[in-house]
């Protein structure tokens, strides 16, 4: 439904339209073949080499200060994310993530991700206080965010 479409739009906005292959041994993005293979493994195999390379280019474009991680304000430059009512929760999950962590987190938004990974991300978004329990206060705060009153 709409939530599924929103997740896919977010995923494809992050990924961008880079769909090329690099020669074996050295990815054209600056990643080595070993890096790409490790990142495919870290992401649970949901990304191909071309997708990893596209994500790396997008990550570098988002990381405007070339710090090696993406800050919250940089993530909010993604139009589909910035208009999402739970954008601040998603940003909190991704904030200060290096590229390896970025791939691991983003993997859950892929259509190829296992259901358990998707559920874990949803749980992390709804667990507002980070105590490992989605309680009454978490749900109340989330509903306020979704309604735009927070």
UniProtKB/TrEMBL annotation:
Family annotation (InterPro entries): EF-hand-dom_pair, EF_Hand_1_Ca_BS, EF_hand_dom
SUPFAM superfamilies: EF-hand
Classification via Pfam families: EF-hand_8 (PF13833)
Molecular function as annotated in GO: calcium ion binding
Keyword annotations from UniProtKB, A to Z: Calcium
Keyword rRNA-binding (UniProt): no
SMART domains: EFh (SM00054)
Domain EF-hand as annotated: residue spans: 114-149
Protein name: EF-hand domain-containing protein
Source organism per UniProt: Chlamydomonas leiostraca
């Amino acid at each position: 439904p709409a939530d599924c479409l929103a997740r896919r739009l977010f995923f494809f906005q992050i990924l961008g339209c880079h769909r090329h292959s690099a020669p074996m041994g050295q990815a054209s993005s600056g990643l080595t073949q070993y890096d790409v293979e490790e990142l495919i493994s870290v992401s649970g195999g949901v990304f191909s080499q071309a997708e990893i390379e596209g994500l790396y280019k997008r990550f570098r474009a988002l990381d405007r200060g070339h710090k090696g991680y993406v800050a919250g304000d940089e993530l909010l430059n993604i139009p589909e994310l910035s208009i999402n009512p739970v954008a601040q929760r998603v940003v909190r999950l991704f904030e200060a993530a290096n590229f390896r962590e970025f791939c691991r987190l983003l993997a859950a938004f892929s259509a190829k991700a296992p259901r358990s990974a998707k559920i874990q991300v949803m749980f992390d978004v709804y667990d507002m206080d980070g105590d490992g329990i989605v309680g009454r206060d978490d749900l109340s705060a989330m509903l306020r965010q979704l309604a735009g009153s927070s």
